[in-house]
Amino acid sequence: METSLLSKFKKLWTGQEEGPDKPVGIRCAVACFVLLLLTSASFRSHGFLFVAIRDHYKVSADEASWPISTSGMLTFFSGILVGPLSQRFSLRPVLLVGTLCSSLGFILSSFAYDTTVLTFTYGLIGGFGNGAIILLVNVLMTQYFLRYRGLAFGVTAAGSTVASFIFPNLMLILVDVWGFPTAMLYIGCMLLPMVLIANFLDDAPWVSGDAAAAGKASESDKLHSEGGFLVQMSIFREPLFYVFLFSNASYQWGFDAYLQTVTDLALSKGTGRVLAVNLMSFFAAADLFGRCVLPLICDKGWLGRDVLVFVSYMISAVYLCILPLLSYALMAAATVTLGSFFGLSAIFYQSLVGEYLGTDRVKVAFGLLMFFKGAFFAAKPLFIGYFRDRVKSYVGLYVICGSLIAVFSLPWLGVIVKRKLPCREADKESSQ
Question: What is the mean pLDDT of the chain?
């Protein structure tokens, strides 16, 4: 029995069959899991980094927020460059540059003497690298998986979740023992293996095609197979593109503000540093549950993915609005709920982009969505600084974030109704 299981595992892991949902895709998913685990050292630690930057440089919340917010902006803005570049050349060289920038962002930040330099090193360089990795991992999962695409997104994205257990507490220890600059240097060195991993990843052969096949194709086929300009830009005529854009932009903006301020929010209530940082561990555990277990609701056919995305957005909006009013124990419980639905909506959003907008446009789709979402992050430092330094309370910040998520999630009701109408008409015809 044991030998049989080992042989099945070996065949599954070493198989050379090409096509979606094959062993080569499983190997790609494992590599992408590690990439997301390491690159998430950045944004999964934003809550602690915000406090650490403010304390190390002795600056206001507004100034301390700029490096982190710039990192978020560049993570999304990079999509407008990364998507077309990976379409024009190939995925591997762009991913190599992204992994190198992600690690250099931390390493160079160890030499930053003020928040302006830190904004350039950690924000611009590191943020661009993070964005390239996240976008191209999404592309790889869309290319290498079809039937198990939702599961693949969940498993690889779990790398980001696991990072929440490791890096916030690791940074807390490193900063306490060696100080902020040395901590950034150590973390940057830990991320360097990403460059080696990226060297083994590239576009799926059955998606990109070889040069010989491309030479025999007609001009029309070339336009579609190579992702011609007209095909790519037709995405702007898709109403669903704007549903994805505004609903997820408000959701990401609200959650980025949450991840950046929740540690400081807990500290302002008199919570100890360790307990405040551990909120991210609670969030991570629930996030992992949401990514790997809750999708079974969809797999069983009980609810559609679009329905679950809408429900996740609405429940998250409610909890964000009430979060700053709660005690630490209730905050921890609310954080678990938020984490569950954040993980669920994250993987379904990514898989729905490929399903609704098409795999032939997925690189540019993810790139444009990330770019436009980045525009929302430009005002975040002033927004957070206003509530932290002037209002002296995060209540208004969380209420605004929750309200924006609720408002921009409403168009998903139209998507759900539109999907269900043909099914009901078909049922009526069959009954007649």
Answer: 80
What are the tens digits of pLDDT across the range 268-281? 888 888 888 888 77
Compute the half-sphere exposure of residue 176: CA atoms within 13 Å on the CB side of its CA: 9
CATH number at residue 271: 1.20.1250.20
Is 402 part of a structural domain of the chain? yes
Q: Which residue has the tokens 């924006």?
A: 404
pLDDT digits (tens, 9 = 90+) for 311-359: 888 988 998 999 888 888 888 888 888 888 887 777 677 777 777 777 6
Question: For residues 348 and 313, is the Cβ–Cβ distance under 8 A?
Answer: no
Q: 379 or 65: which carries more pLDDT confidence?
A: 65
Domain contains 354: yes
> Burial letters for 144-153: b for 16+ Cβ neighbours within 10 Å, e otherwise?
bbeebbbbbb
* 8 within domain boundaries: no
Q: How many domains does the chain have?
A: 1
Domain hosting residue 134, numbered range: 20-208+235-421
Task: Give, rounded to a whole angstrom, the gap between the first and last alpha carbons of the chain.
Answer: 53
Give this prediction's pTM: 0.70
CA dist list (Å): 424 to 311, 417, 420, 427: 22, 10, 6, 5
Give the confidence band of 75 by pLDDT, cuts at 50, 70, 90: confident
CA distance 144 to 130: 21
20: left (phi over 0), alpha (psi -120 to 50) or beta: beta
Task: Please state, as a whole number, how many other Cβ atoms lie within 10 Å of the Cβ of residue 184.
Answer: 27
| CA 290/CA 149 separation, integer angstroms | 16
